């Protein structure tokens, strides 16, 4: 990342002194014409905007776990500063999506949501109770009997039933709440393998999430972490000699998945992942860690693919289907936690903003790469979050100030403070609050200060953004319930429960235009012949 010193010597910037401090201010921005021209260009783009009313062939849902609006803003600045700019003027890939809405994230039974009930909302189209997956709010957490008859179908399942290829890509364990609601029906998000099942669940016939991963919807691409839950407890992990599988039923779920699928492959490291030939592979399962994958800052480049690489591989396999595909992509590492789970989300829970924001930047790279591999004409892409975090970003800092740096002003105790702070979490300064500087606050493991002491920072309850582009993307507007998301996406693709929609595909529209042009040409020729006669 560019340091403050590096930014100060960039030739296109000038230094403006203020109260003994300095701000890096681009010289061109001091000319009002810069902003007039920028405004006119944006206005022209708005006036020229047309709605793509075709049927979506492909659907991609990008989920930044814990990626509230403050995280998006801070990630934008970090991205720019990593490129040697001041940062604030930077543009994320998701920033270019023309349609925007807000999503209300509350659960049926809780004001502050969790990743399971929110996942049920944006996958299945109904709001649910805290901690439950793929079930309506009639089900109760950790109660197996309450799940029966209350299962709800996900958009991933409906896409598969419509003949599309489907996939999930996650930086957490693939049995984690966010991806799990797309294929499982569980009253308890923590039932990763049969080891976690309660006696009531076993007696009641409830299945663990890993079991449901391979026995419910037939998923073409499964990439992420979580291999521990797929193997018997007697099986040693191929990468970590002290780690074993967790299954008590002695079932090797990976082998069971492979034997029932033609042209299928399983990989657990980057070398084998890179060797997968997309044209020869119809099913791919890649599990790169026993539980969650490593943060981008800590990723072993020789062992684990990046989120962007996983997204690319998934799209190249899925897009072979002439009927299209549905892909769910999650970065949970954005989450602001000490345990490893969407690493955006995990970084926030740990109170370590640097981890969360670098994950958000990588998440945006994956969005950009997906755009390069697909067409906006037939692919509806949606970016959103399941919930936010109590992560704030302010402090009267100058332009170009390091995103994780300190404010130019002092607190009431006469000490410096960082721009990035948490409302609660492990960064609470017990005793005397320490003084701060940019070197300390920009270190990888620094815990941003928090107002309330908790061992893990919490989710936020405010609305999160929805960004959309592609066919019928204009359906995302205003303030919506989170459960609206799969309804709009399903309608755009004309899949259940909206299979009777009358939208035409791009190909059909093109054929009609060609037929109309031929008709006009024939009528014109007939008119000319009539005139000659």
TrEMBL record:
<feature type="signal peptide">
    <location>
        <begin position="1"/>
        <end position="23"/>
    </location>
</feature>
<feature type="binding site">
    <location>
        <position position="178"/>
    </location>
    <ligand>
        <name>Mg(2+)</name>
    </ligand>
</feature>
<feature type="binding site">
    <location>
        <position position="330"/>
    </location>
    <ligand>
        <name>Mg(2+)</name>
    </ligand>
</feature>
<feature type="binding site">
    <location>
        <position position="176"/>
    </location>
    <ligand>
        <name>Mg(2+)</name>
    </ligand>
</feature>
<keyword id="KW-0479">Metal-binding</keyword>
<dbReference type="GO" id="GO:0004035">
    <property type="term" value="F:alkaline phosphatase activity"/>
</dbReference>
<comment type="similarity">
    <text>Belongs to the alkaline phosphatase family.</text>
</comment>
<keyword id="KW-1003">Cell membrane</keyword>
<dbReference type="GO" id="GO:0098552">
    <property type="term" value="C:side of membrane"/>
</dbReference>
<feature type="binding site">
    <location>
        <position position="349"/>
    </location>
    <ligand>
        <name>Zn(2+) 1</name>
    </ligand>
</feature>
<feature type="binding site">
    <location>
        <position position="459"/>
    </location>
    <ligand>
        <name>Zn(2+) 2</name>
    </ligand>
</feature>
<keyword id="KW-0460">Magnesium</keyword>
<comment type="subunit">
    <text>Homodimer.</text>
</comment>
<keyword id="KW-0472">Membrane</keyword>
<keyword id="KW-0449">Lipoprotein</keyword>
<feature type="binding site">
    <location>
        <position position="387"/>
    </location>
    <ligand>
        <name>Zn(2+) 2</name>
    </ligand>
</feature>
<dbReference type="GO" id="GO:0005886">
    <property type="term" value="C:plasma membrane"/>
</dbReference>
<keyword id="KW-0325">Glycoprotein</keyword>
<keyword id="KW-0378">Hydrolase</keyword>
<dbReference type="InterPro" id="IPR017850">
    <property type="entry name" value="Alkaline_phosphatase_core_sf"/>
</dbReference>
<feature type="binding site">
    <location>
        <position position="65"/>
    </location>
    <ligand>
        <name>Zn(2+) 2</name>
    </ligand>
</feature>
<feature type="active site" description="Phosphoserine intermediate">
    <location>
        <position position="115"/>
    </location>
</feature>
<dbReference type="InterPro" id="IPR001952">
    <property type="entry name" value="Alkaline_phosphatase"/>
</dbReference>
<keyword id="KW-0862">Zinc</keyword>
<feature type="binding site">
    <location>
        <position position="386"/>
    </location>
    <ligand>
        <name>Zn(2+) 2</name>
    </ligand>
</feature>
<dbReference type="GO" id="GO:0046872">
    <property type="term" value="F:metal ion binding"/>
</dbReference>
<feature type="binding site">
    <location>
        <position position="345"/>
    </location>
    <ligand>
        <name>Zn(2+) 2</name>
    </ligand>
</feature>
<protein>
    <recommendedName>
        <fullName>alkaline phosphatase</fullName>
        <ecNumber>3.1.3.1</ecNumber>
    </recommendedName>
</protein>
<feature type="binding site">
    <location>
        <position position="65"/>
    </location>
    <ligand>
        <name>Mg(2+)</name>
    </ligand>
</feature>
<keyword id="KW-0732">Signal</keyword>
<dbReference type="Pfam" id="PF00245">
    <property type="entry name" value="Alk_phosphatase"/>
</dbReference>
<keyword id="KW-0336">GPI-anchor</keyword>
């Amino acid at each position: 990342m560019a340091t403050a010193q590096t930014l100060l010597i960039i030739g296109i910037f000038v230094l403006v002194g203020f109260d003994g401090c300095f701000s890096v201010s681009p010289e061109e921005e001091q000319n009002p014409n810069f902003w007039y021209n920028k405004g006119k260009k944006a206005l022209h783009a708005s006036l020229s905007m047309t709605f793509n009313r075709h049927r979506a062939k492909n659907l991609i849902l990008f989920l930044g776990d814990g990626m509230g609006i403050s995280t998006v803003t801070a990630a934008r600045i970090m991205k720019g500063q990593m490129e040697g700019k001041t940062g604030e003027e930077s543009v994320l890939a998701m920033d270019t999506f023309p349609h925007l809405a807000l999503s209300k994230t509350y659960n049926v039974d809780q004001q502050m949501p969790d990743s399971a009930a929110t996942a049920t909302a944006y996958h299945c189209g109904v709001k649910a109770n805290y901690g439950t997956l793929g079930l309506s709010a009639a089900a109760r957490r950790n109660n197996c009997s309450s799940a029966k008859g209350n299962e709800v179908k996900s958009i991933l399942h409906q896409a598969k039933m419509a003949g599309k290829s489907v996939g999930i890509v996650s930086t957490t364990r693939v049995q984690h709440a966010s991806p799990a609601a797309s294929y499982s029906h569980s009253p308890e998000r923590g039932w990763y393998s049969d080891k976690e099942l309660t006696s009531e669940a076993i007696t009641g016939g409830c299945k663990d999430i890993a079991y449901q991963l391979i026995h419910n919807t037939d998923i073409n691409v499964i990439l992420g972490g979580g291999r521990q839950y797929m193997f018997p407890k007697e099986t040693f992990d191929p990468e970590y000699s002290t780690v074993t599988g967790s299954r008590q039923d002695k079932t090797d779920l990976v082998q069971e998945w492979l034997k029932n699928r033609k042209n299928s492959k399983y990989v657990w490291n980057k070398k084998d992942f890179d060797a997968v030939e997309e044209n020869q592979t119809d099913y791919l399962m890649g599990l790169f860690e026993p539980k969650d994958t490593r943060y981008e800052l800590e990723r072993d480049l020789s062992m684990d693919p990046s989120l962007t690489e996983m997204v690319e591989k998934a799209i190249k396999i899925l897009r072979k289907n002439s009927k299209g595909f549905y892909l769910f992509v999650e970065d949970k590492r954005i989450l602001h936690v000490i345990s490893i789970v969407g690493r955006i989300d995990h970084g926030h829970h740990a109170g370590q903003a640097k981890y969360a924001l670098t994950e958000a930047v990588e998440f945006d790279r994956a969005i950009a790469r997906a755009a390069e591999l697909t067409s906006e004409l037939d692919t509806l892409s949606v970016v959103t979050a399941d919930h936010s975090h109590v992560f704030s970003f302010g402090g009267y800092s100058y332009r170009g100030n390091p995103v994780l740096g300190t404010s130019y002003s002092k607190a009431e105790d006469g000490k410096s403070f960082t721009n990035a702070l948490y409302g609660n979490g492990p960064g609470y300064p017990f005793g005397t609050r320490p003084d701060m500087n940019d070197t300390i606050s920009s270190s990888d493991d620094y815990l941003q200060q928090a107002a309330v002491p908790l061992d893990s920072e919490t989710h936020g309850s405010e609305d999160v953004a929805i960004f959309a582009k592609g066919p019928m993307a204009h359906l995302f507007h205003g303030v919506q319930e989170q459960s609206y998301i799969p309804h709009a996406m399903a309608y755009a693709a004309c899949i259940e429960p909206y299979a009777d929609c009358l939208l035409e595909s791009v190909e059909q529209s093109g054929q009609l235009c060609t037929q109309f042009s031929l008709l006009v040409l024939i009528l014109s020729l007939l008119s000319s012949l009539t005139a000659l006669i």
